[in-house]
Design brief:
CATH architecture of the largest domain: 2-Layer Sandwich
Pfam families: Transferase
Number of domains: 2
Keywords: Acyltransferase, Transferase
Radius of gyration: 22 Å
GO molecular function, one term: acyltransferase activity, transferring groups other than amino-acyl groups
Length: 466
Amino acid sequence: MEGSSSPVRVVEQCHISPPPGSVRPTSLPLTFFDIVFLFAPPNESVFSFEFPHPLLHFTRTILPKLKHSLSLTLQHFFPLASSLIFPPPPSKPFLQYATGASLTLTLAESSGNFNRLTTRRVEDVAESHLLIPPLPPALVSEDGTRVVPLLALQITVFPNSGICIGTNCHHVLADESSFHHFMKVWASVCRSGTDFEIESLPSHNRGLVKDPSDLENKFLEDWRSWTPIPCELLGTQLLIGKVRTTFVLNKAQIDRLKLWVSNLFIKLQDSKPAHISSFVVICSFTWVSMVKTEEITDDEMQCCFNYAADCRERLGYSLPRSYFGNCLSLRSSQAKKSDLVGENGIVAAVNAIGNNVKDLENGVLRGAEDWTSGWLKGTTSTNINPRHFTTLAGSPRFDFYNDLDFGWGRPKKSEVINVDFGRCVYVSNSRDEEGGIEIVLALKREQMDSFSSIFKQALKFAGVDL
C-alpha cells in the first residue's frame, strides 16, 4: 500500500476479537454452497462516507466506537474472525474459530481526492484498490495444514473530506446476503452503542443444508483437480487504463423500460415475455451493450450472462433468511452473438435471461452438478469462449445505502471494486431513490466510451434518457 508515490499511509494496525469468553471454540463444515467459492477470488468492497473532520477528531471520537462495536458484532458473526483450514488430503477444508481469534483492522490516511474517488466516473480505478487491505498471509503447519484468514478491514480517512471502509472477504465465508447482514448489524451497534437491539441474529447451523445428490464431494473433487489462476495475473497491471462508471436509473425509468419491452414482445411475438422484471430488463440492456462493445467476429459465438440467485427461500425446506454462509444458485443464460447484436437483440436477451429466471421455479439446484465444471471453470461447450462471459455481481435487494449508517450518515457511494478485474457488472439499489438501480462496471477507457454510448442509445430508443 505504502510507497514513495502512494497517497495512502498506514496509521495503525490492530486485531479485533469478540469480547473475551463470548464465543466458544467452534468448527463449521463447508457446505456444497461454500465449496463452489473455493474457486473464486475474494470480494472487495468500498463504502465511502462524507466526513468533514480532521484525522485527529476521527481517531479520538469515532475509531474507539468502531472498534468496540466491531468486537460486539463479532460475537454474533464469529466466522468472520475464523480461519479456513486446509488439512492434508483426503480431509476436507473447514472453518475454525479458536479462542482469541481476530481479524485485522487497518487505519490509514489518504492525501488523495475523496470527491474524485466517489464520482460516477472514476478515471483511475487503481486508486480505489489502495483502500482495500490485503488478507494476511496463510500459515502452514509442519503437517502441511494451511490456515487461511478470511476477512480484513481498512478504514481510510481523507482529512476534512471523508471516510472509506474497505473490506476484503473470502467468498467461501459469506455471500452478499450474509455480508450485508454483518455490515448492517455492525453499523447499528456502532450507532446505538449496544448490541441489545439487533433485530435478527445470524444462524450458523450448517446442518440445515441438505445434500441428497452428494454435491459436496463432487465439488471437492473438481476443486482438488483445479489449477488456480496465478495471483500475478490478477494484479494491478489489469487496472491500467481502466475507468469505472456508475449508471443510475430511477424507478420511473425502469418501469418505462419494462413496459417498452412488454409492448415489443406483443408486437413481435403476440405474447408477453415468459418473465419480466426490473432485474431481467436491466440485465438485458447491459448484456446487449457489453456484447456490442466487444469486437466479436464470430456471429455464431455463444455469449453467456452469469448471475447468482439466492436460495434461502427456494429450497423446498426451512432455511432461515438469517442463515450465515453461502446459499446461491449459479445461473448461466446463453444466446448467439448474432441474435444479441441484431435488430431485436433486447428480445433475445430478455428471452435468455427471463426464461432462465423462470426456470428457478423448477428447482434452484437443477443442473447444480455442473456448477464447478461448467459455470466457474469455463464451460463444457467447446463453442463458448470464456472471454465472452459477462458476470453479474450484487443485487438491489440489499440496501447498503440506508442500512449502513454508523452514526455520521449513510454512504455517499457503495461499490464492489473487484469488478475492475474482469467482465463483471455490479448491480445495487440506488442511493438517490427507492426502486432505483445502480449499474457499475469497469472497462478500458475507449471501451467504456463505446459502451456508454451504446447503452445510452439503447435506453433512448426505449424512451429513457440518461
